[in-house]
């Protein structure tokens, strides 16, 4: 019975047909507005979980394979009709702050899943270290990642361009998102998020921006509009974020991470400018205006 309850909580018992089989009906019947984001995309698992050949591929509603890095739009079109039904009307300022997030790592898990930027179709895979799938250590008192972790599509932190705010080049990946909502999400889910702020992590000399966001469909999302609301309604969460990001690589023998701005979280307006900049870098990469290296597009 205990094992069955665990299956029901995690959804593992429904993964025989892959994540798409589990998530698509739920997303399609979830109602209007941001709830239906996942209905636009399906996922397909290949290989054995936690093995080097495990991949999560993405498809659109027509069944065509797509890249979660390049083909999913950055912004959510609040005026767009989905399945012939208009989405819930949002305030103008909120509609400008709705972005698609590709979930890579669920909260409380340790497997270091990521978009494979150098592979065709850019599936989600598990990072490999020393020839073995990589797991992030638990940072006391936390279990695994303390947020749902993922990325914004159609963004790129250019490794050849110094960020004017940090004076460090980018980390060659899409911009990262730490989603702080109440629901534990699944790898491959595509959700709508509201951006609340941003933190400038300096990881081994590279700029690695960490966006703070909340699922637009979270029951408490209406209370969150900027970074100060996180301090107000989730006290201690930002401090825990700094602590986790400082030490999470130390068990691997690496030094503590550092932060620009003395670890200060910047507000929503600042974050939106960084998103705009990384989106422009992504467009320049696709137009071959800069060196994209081994990235598959």
Automatic annotation (TrEMBL):
Any one GO CC term of the record: cytoplasm
Keywords: Acetylation, Hydrolase, Magnesium, Metal-binding
Pfam families: Pyrophosphatase
Family: Belongs to the PPase family.
Enzyme class: hydrolase
Biological processes annotated in GO: phosphate-containing compound metabolic process
Transmembrane segment boundaries: none
Name of the molecule in the record: inorganic diphosphatase
Coiled coil feature spans: none
Recorded GO MF terms: inorganic diphosphate phosphatase activity; magnesium ion binding
Oligomeric and partner information: Homodimer.
Cofactors named for this entry: Mg(2+)
InterPro entries the UniProt entry points to: Pyrophosphatase, Pyrophosphatase_sf
Lineage: Eukaryota, Metazoa, Chordata, Craniata, Vertebrata
E.C. code: 3.6.1.1
Domain of life of the source: Eukaryota
